[in-house]
Amino acid sequence: MLALDDVTFSYGAAPPYRFTMRAAAGAVTAIRGASGSGKSTLLDLVAGFLVPARGSIRIGGTEVSALPPEQRPVSILFQSETLFEHLSAARNVALGLARPDPARVAAALAEVGLAALGPQRAATLSGGQKQRVALARTLLRDRPVLLLDEPFSALDDDTRLATRSLVRDLTRKHGWATVLVTHHADDIAAIADKVYVLENGVLTEA
Amino acid sequence: MLRPSLFALAALVCLALPASAEDKPTLTLYTYDAFAADWGPGPQLKAGFEQSCGCTVAFVAAEDSISALRRIQLEGATTRADALVGLDTFIAGEARATGLFAPHGLDLGGLALPAPWTDTDFVPFDYGYFAFVYDKTRLATPPASFEALIAEPDSFKIVVMDPRSSTPGLGLVVWIREAYGDHAPEIWAGLKPHILTMSRGWSEGYGLFLKGEADMALSYTTSPAYHAVAEGDDRYAAAEFTEGHIAQVEVSGILKSSPHQELARQFLAYMASPEGQKAIPETNWMYPVVDLGPDLPAAFGPAPGKVLPVDEAAVTADRNAWIEEALAALR
Amino acid sequence: MPRSAERRLPHRPLRLAGGAAAAVAIAALIATLFWSILGAAAGGQGGGAGADIGYLIYITTLQASLSTALSLLVGIALAWALNRLRFVGRTLVIGLFAAAIVTPGLVVAFGLLAVWGRSGWLGGLGVPVFGLGGVVAAHLILDGAFAARILLARLDAIPELRLKTGQSLGLSAWRRFAVIDWPALRGSLPGLAAIIFLLAFTSFPIVLLLGGGPAVQTLELAIYSAVRLDFDLALAVRLALVQIGICAAIILVSAALTPVPSSLDRPATPRWRDGPAARALQWTVLALALAGFAAALLAVLADGLAGLATVLGRASFWTATATSLGVAALSAALALALALVVAAGRAATPSRPLRTLLGAPAYAYLAVPAVALALGAFLFVRNLGILPDAAAPAIVVIANALLSLPFALATLGPPLDAIAQSRGRLIRSLGLGGTRQFAAVEWPLIARDAGLVLALGFCFSLGDLGVIALFDTHDFVTLPLLMSRALGAYRSNDAATIAALMLVLTLVAFIALPALFERLSRARA
Fold this sequence. Notes:
Structural class of chain B: alpha/beta
Shape of chain C: globular
Shape of chain B: globular
Order of helices and strands of chain B: HEHHEHEHEEHEHHEHEHEEHHHEEH
Radius of gyration of chain C: 23 Å
Oligomer: heterotrimer
Distance between the termini of chain C: 31 Å
Mean pLDDT of chain B: 89
Number of helices of chain B: 14
Largest sheet of chain B: 12 strands, mixed
Strand content of chain B: 15-25%
């Protein structure tokens, strides 16, 4: 479970953001908000790319505010740049492991339904396939928190439906606390177990 | 694209040139950059000559004297040059062979040179002896011959210049050849461990020596005079070699194609006159070709005890073979 | 996506035509220079010393290959360290490294000696500075630092999201380099390699100063000697063509290798530090580079202090400074304009042979021996019926602009290619015209690089006096000429001061111009 309490951050002289929220394990917690409302700032704080002025960020009861991004028990997926384009799908997935293990890579790719695409270069994959490969990598990393930053935005409708179901199923199966940032009400209605609305830098539970 | 901008800029430059007085003839002298530069003898000679000639002296300065000669060769009969100032012993034969130069017609019997001057084409204006220069505070007893230099330990380093790109470099090839004849390659082979490097030009090589990178550098017997007179620093001296030294004589020649041959002749005579010669020693740092008496700073010192003659015809004919044998011995 | 790429690029016939026109003009200029020389060759006497041509080709190729390989290695290591480390004075250090390539070679060589030479600051360590090692070391200072500057720009342009993804994956320092940095660097390496090879191959005074004798010399010496001492112009042209042939082979190989780089972004402020071992290595690389590179340049600055008052008090210095600044500004502007035209033309076509053809003349120019340029330019101007001495300033401006053109292309080419590749579809779909494409999309993204190109062109021109050997230098005096005059007249203190002041000007240009251009582009964006 992910818990933020009074996590405060501001860009220079701008009015500060203050975040308090809970995201339960095995559930999808959605953050809804207009562009520029601070959704990405929230994810950057949880992932460790930004350091809050004060407040606490706990994952499974452990304070993580002081940890650098690479040491946080968090996986993150962006809308783009989730994969390294010049590597094959399998090598991208393998980046989730400390040492190579082709069997586990193949298993993860199979779990996201892309068993056959391992040798293909990431640059040649479709948008939906890229997100699935990234999810396969997340599987191998098996971090308790999964952060999704508009992950379905670039996808066509069919792919979008399939990918978000996959996110929901994986979340339940692996017990992740998944935080989904989006401005699509449709995605939220489909897979969110809990919803926060972000307005003027303040989170409120919907 | 290229041509319009070229023309435009050329036109701009032409407009910017001051209109010269049309009644006065202009004597155009091709020379090397250092001669015409502020520090060189050019400005003083120009001022002195213009006082009496009723003319304007204009220098066209190329990178070095060989470049100035090549420019005249390329321009052929259409050259603007009335005279070429600054050829030397090693290129004079080749310049003579081009047939572009006219006899000077001057009586030069009164000049004081290492050997009596008999050349009817070129007029000398200064000379110097090639020598290795050293720092007395670092080197108490310099080698007194090529053989003594060869006998020094390998850590004893000299800087020389490449004979293909530098006049002193060529001078050393001729020097060793005049001193040792067919044994020259043996001397070069002996020098090999001592040669720190063969620089492209004199200035870089001498610079290496001044920075303390080498014990001696190929230069002129008059180099220490610069340090003594201009810098008040008498640490430097030229090592006298018992084999003898050769002289590099700097000369000028009148172009056959010049419409101002008489004026050019007068300028060359002026340069070789005691008045013109006073401008030479402390600008070019070479010996004057007339006896200036007390006007020559004492730091210039006496000529080396033994001076080897240079056979111009042999230099012109065999130069490349000599360079090749020297380089082959070093490789 | 090689098959579909051509339809993604905006259709820009004018750009293609402009690039082609510039390329043809440069090729024609080179051809004309040689034609002029051959035309005059009838008057040559022939029969020059040429027994060691084969050896010179061998040693020059060896030296240039070593210089290139090591420069790239050092450049990558240094760019890697500078990309990761943040410290006070970083901008200055980057400027210092970038300035190395445009500093006159002899100045760098003497700086090297002031540190490592027999009487140098660290002379006691007994590092051999003469011979092949010394020549390669001097080239490393000049070219390795330049490579680092160009490669650093590529690393700084890695998209922020890619870095975040990598960081959240906890990539090790080595994997981070292999997965994120290397793909960003790879695209620039062939072009850089070609440039460095050309520079090292045509390097002349440095090679002779540090080479230690005939065992380590350079083909340019033979060409120079063929023109100057033997006046055998036909031989000179033959040798020059050999040199251009060897260099052209390198250019073509590198062109065939060049993949299109993919990244283009504003520099992100990285908060991603590598592990302690990698950071220790980065600091070590930086310290070694500072000891080896910056110390040599600092030695030049320190050396120049002594004569400062004398030199500043001389009218000739100020005249030469004004001339140099004027020439440098004009040739930098010309180089930038040419580079934009050629690079935009190249980016407008996916055809690799065509891209190679468009870029090759610019590189080939760099392979033309300086003495051939001087001679050819002189004869060319004469044949046009112009008084050569009046044309000298224009010749120097053009020659210097062309000298820095390959560097300008290496700097501006990759980002313009990246824009065409990554935003081509958007530009097409919006129906943006070429002018708006440039003003709205390209200029804001390349302004900083354009500033770098101007700085490069400016400083190259400031430091070079290659083409005026046969032209009248009496009234046309630039700073490098004044410096070589001072050296030739025993005034080594004055020369040292002029060298130091040129270095300072170079540094200022390198730090100020790119920053200024970025600010300008932001004001417009």
